[in-house]
Amino acid sequence: MSNENVEQILDVQLTCEGQATGKMRNELKVTGSWNPDHPWQLATDEGPFHGGDSTAPPPLALFCASVTGCFMTQVRAFAKKLRIPIASLKVTGSFKWQAVTHPQRPYVSSPRGFGLDIEIDSSATPEQLKELIAAAKRGCFLEQTLIRPNAIDHRMKLDGRWVEV
Amino acid sequence: MSNENVEQILDVQLTCEGQATGKMRNELKVTGSWNPDHPWQLATDEGPFHGGDSTAPPPLALFCASVTGCFMTQVRAFAKKLRIPIASLKVTGSFKWQAVTHPQRPYVSSPRGFGLDIEIDSSATPEQLKELIAAAKRGCFLEQTLIRPNAIDHRMKLDGRWVEV
User: What integer best gives the mean pLDDT of chain A?
Assistant: First the structure.
C-alpha cells in the first residue's frame, strides 16, 4: 500500500484558561496544541438576568457561533477536496434550551433542539451537494461532539490537592 | 402553594446567521430571543491547515471558551443564590479531539475527552464548594448539552425549497 492511501490520526487539543473578573465577565485564553505561541484572547459576560455588565457576548452566543462556523469550515474545506464548486455559503443555526427555575434554588437546564439551514450557491448537482453535506457532518468536530454523550471530568483544588468532584 | 415555591420554565433560544467570506472566514451574527435588538457580531477563521488567513479564532477556540465560560457563569450565579462566598475563580478547560485523515478523502472527526479544573478562593467549607460545583453542573446549559446525545436537523435549500438532508 502506498503512502497516498494511508489513513493518519490527527490529534487536536485545546486548553482554555478562564479567569473571573468584573461582576460576571470571564477572560478566556485559548491555546491550540498546533499553535502554542499564538493563543486567542476571548471573553464572555452576562446581561441583567445574571447581574452582568454585557461587556462581551454570553457563552451561549460563542457556542452557537462555534457550531455554525465549524460546520461551515467543513463545507468549504471538503468542497475543495471533493472538487465541488461553491460560489457562496450561508448557514442559519437555531439553538434552543430550557431551564427550570425556582425562586430559592439554582435552575436546572437542558437542550431542546438544534438545527442548521444551509444555502449554497453552486453549479453542482443536488446529489453532489448532499454528498458534500454528509461529509461535512462526519468531519465537523462539533457536530460529532454534540451527537454523542460526552463525559466531562471535573477536578477542584482543595487544600492544595486536586480532587475529583 | 405560594408563588414563592413555584417552578417556572425559562425558554432560551438563539439564532446564528453565518455568511462565508474570504478564504475560510465566517461572519456570524448571533441573536438571543431575550435581546433581539442587540445581536452579537462574531467571526471565525482558520489557519494554514485549512488554507485560511487566521483573521479570527477558529471555531474550536470559541467552543472551548463557551464551555469554560458557561460553567464559570453558573458557579458565580449559584454562589450568590446559595450564599457561598467566592473571592476568586479560575477554571482551566482541556478539550481533545481526533480526526482520521486521508490524502484523497474528507477526514472524519470524534471527541476524545473534556475536563475542567476548578480553583476557587473561598472561606466556604469543602462540602459547600462541592455542593456549588454539583449545582453548576446541573445548571450549565453547555455541560447539560454535552453529556447527552443531541440530534441536529439539517435542511438545504434546493431549487427554492427546503429539503431535509
Answer: 96
Q: Are A4 and B104 in contact (CB under 8 A)?
A: yes
Nearest residue to A50 via CA among B73, B6, B38, B144:
B73
Q: Which one-letter amino acid corresponds to residue A28? A: L
Q: Is the pLDDT of residue A124 over 50?
A: yes
Question: In chain B, which residue's Cα lies nearest the Cα of A160?
Answer: B119
pLDDT at B126 over 80: yes
Is residue A141 pLDDT above 60, yes or no? Answer: yes
Q: How far is CA A140 from CA A2, A125, A152, B69, in A?
A: 27, 22, 20, 22
Beta bridge partners of A135: none
Q: Measured between CB atoms, does A107 come within 8 Å of chain B? A: yes
Partners of residue A123 in chain B, C-beta under 8 Å: none
The alpha-helical segments, DSSP class H, found in A6-140 are 59-81, 126-139
Instruction: Please give the average per-residue pLDDT across B57-67, as a whole number.
Output: 98
Tell me which of A16, A133, A142 to substitute to probe the interface with B (most B C-beta atoms closer than 10 Å): A16
Instruction: Give me the interface pTM, i.e. the ipTM.
Output: 0.97
What pLDDT, on a 0 to 100 scale, did the predictor assign at position B7?
Answer: 94
Report if pTM > 0.95: yes
Among all residues of chain B, which has the CA nearest to that of A18?
B91
pLDDT tens sequence across A11-61 = 999 999 999 999 999 999 999 999 999 999 999 999 998 999 999 999 999
CB within 8 Å: A119 and B156: yes
Under 8 Å between Cβ of B74 and A108: no
The minimal CB distance from B4 to the residues A65, A103, A114 is found for A103
- The answer to whether B120 touches B129, Cβ cutoff 8 Å, is yes
Find the residue in A nearest to B32 (Cα).
A61
Q: Which residues of B touch A150 (CB under 8 A)?
A: 111, 114, 146-147
For B10, the closest of A68, A93, A99 (CB atoms) is A99
How is the beta sheet containing A40-44 ordered, strand by strand? A40-44, A25-32, A8-21, B88-101, B108-121, A152-158, A161-164
